[in-house]
Every structure is written in C-alpha cells, then in structure tokens.
Design a protein that fits this description.
Layout lengths: L53 H38 L19 H4 L5 H30 L4 H32 L2 H23 L13 H7 L4 H34 L2 H17 L1
Family: Belongs to the SCAMP family.
Pfam families: SCAMP
Protein name: Secretory carrier-associated membrane protein
C-alpha cells in the first residue's frame, strides 16, 4: 500500500515570520526547513529614561514667583486704597468726579443723584443760568470783536475778554458751587453766601443788558444803550448788539426767579434763624 497524504487539498501552513531566502525543505508537515525570526528581547518592568529640560523648569518656577509677587503687591495696594477711602468717608470728605460735559468733563455736576428732590428744579434752573451766563459773555465777546474789526477801539475788545475770563469761572465758583453744596448738605451759611453773591450776579446782568457808558466803556458790552449809539452808524452791528442785550435780559429774568425760589426756601425752612445761630456761635468761638 503506497504512502500518501490524508488530505491532498489542504493548504500549506505559512509562517509570516519566516525568512523568504530559505527554501522549503522536504519531509514533515508544513515544511520543516522554514526557520522563524528570533524574538526581540523584552524585560518586564523596565523603565525608559526621558531627558527633561532643566532650564525650562527653572524659567517656569521664576515666572510663577514673579506672578505671585505681583499679585501680592496688587492686593496690598488694593487694601491700602480701601483703607484710605474708608478714612475719607469717616472724615466727611466727598470725592467729586468730573462728569460734565460728557464729551470733555471739566466740572462735577450730578443734580439727579446728589440734590434732594424738592430742590432739584431750582438747581436745574440755576445751572441753566450758569450756562446762560456763558452764552451771554461769549456772544458779547464775538459782538465786540466784530465792532473792533469795523474800526472801534481795541480797548473795548480787551474789556470784553476780561469780562469773559472772569465772569465764567466767577459764576461757577462764587455762586453756583455754593448753591450746589448748600442744597446737598442743607447748610444755612452756604445758602446765605449764595444769596449775597447771586444778587451781585443779577445786578451785573441787568447793567449788561442796559450797558451804561459810566459802567461799560464805549460799547464793550452789548446793551440797549450801546446798541442805540451804534445803530445810526452801522445798522447790522446795531442789530448784533440788540440781540446781546436781549440775551442779558433773559438771563436777568431767569436769575431773579432762581433767587426768589432759594430765598423762599431759605426763609420757610428756618435756615435764616439757623444761619444767625451759626454766625453767632462762630463769632463767639473766634472771640474766645
């Protein structure tokens, strides 16, 4: 009986790791002549050393220290600023932030939040008279400048500049700020000082609307008398002066309404008697 394979159609076993240069030998199943590749050595639990950049680690540590130092300094400054603000509040000092006009803040003015509701209308109208004074004086300077270009004396232009440069800051610091502080703190003395200085303001506006020669030299103020003297020589310039006179008349009328309202509140709320007591007390302390 001849020797033969049990299954002639079975596939041969192929070793994928065998060296292709070695030919298949005879005898045995799957080709005993095929030699597999030797396995790579592997040690269980072996560690792999990865080199670290020591310079980078030191830089990160130094940056962290700097950030912590800056954070501590900012915290210290914040605590110091908080202590100063608390000390200022305890001392009764009010920090005023410039907020008007919004496009270029030059003064502090917050009637809606700092003035009592019963005095807000008066304060708004008083602020309007301050703006009106600015408009009147600037218009007067423009009118007098026009007169100067038409051959009038340059002295009247110099006087108009003096009126403007002294009148605008004078109105703000001499009577508007005292009224603002008086309404905010309800101070009788400040109300009294406002009434006194505001009376001078009204007198100035009335005289400016008339512009007598004895007070305002040679057309340096756009009043009725100045307009009447200029109109026969130059009708256009006379009209300009009449407009300036009308502006000062409006300013005078509104200012009279403001001083009436403040005076009524000053008398009705008992501030007059309180001011007398404060003046007497201060006089006594000065004498002592």
């Amino acid at each position: 009986m001849s020797h033969h394979d049990t299954n002639p159609f079975a596939d041969e076993e192929v070793n994928p790791f065998a060296d292709p240069s070695v030919k298949k030998g005879s005898g045995g199943r799957g080709g005993g002549g095929i030699s597999p590749l030797p396995p790579e050595p592997y040690e269980s639990g072996a560690t792999i050393d990865i080199p670290l950049d020591t310079h980078s680690t030191k830089d990160i540590t130094a940056k962290e220290k700097k950030l912590k130092a800056k954070e501590a300094e900012l915290k210290r400054r914040e605590e110091e600023l908080t202590r100063k603000e608390e000390a200022i509040k305890k001392a009764g000092i009010v920090i005023e932030v410039k907020n008007w006009p919004a496009f270029f803040p030059i003064i502090h003015n917050d009637i809606a939040n700092e003035i009592p509701i019963h005095l807000q209308t008066t304060m708004y109208v008083a602020f309007a008279t301050l703006i009106g004074l600015v408009i009147c004086l600037l218009y007067n300077m423009v009118a007098v400048t026009t007169a100067w270009t038409k051959g009038y004396s340059p002295i009247i232009w110099l006087l108009a500049v003096i009126y403007t440069l002294t009148g605008i800051p004078g109105g703000f610091y001499l009577w508007y700020r005292p009224l603002y502080q008086a309404a905010r703190t309800d101070s009788a003395l400040r109300f009294g000082s406002f009434l006194l200085v505001y009376s001078v303001h009204i007198a100035f506006c009335v005289l400016a609307a008339i512009a007598p020669e004895l007070v305002f030299r040679g057309g340096s103020m756009t009043g009725i008398l100045a307009a009447l003297s200029i109109s026969p020589q130059d009708r256009a310039l006379g009209i300009i002066y009449f407009v300036g006179s009308a502006l000062f008349c409006c300013e005078s009328l509104v200012s009279i309404w403001v001083i009436q309202q403040v005076f009524m509140y000053f008398r009705g709320s008992g501030k007059a008697a309180e001011m007398k007591r404060e003046v007497a007390r201060q006089t006594m302390m000065t004498a002592l």
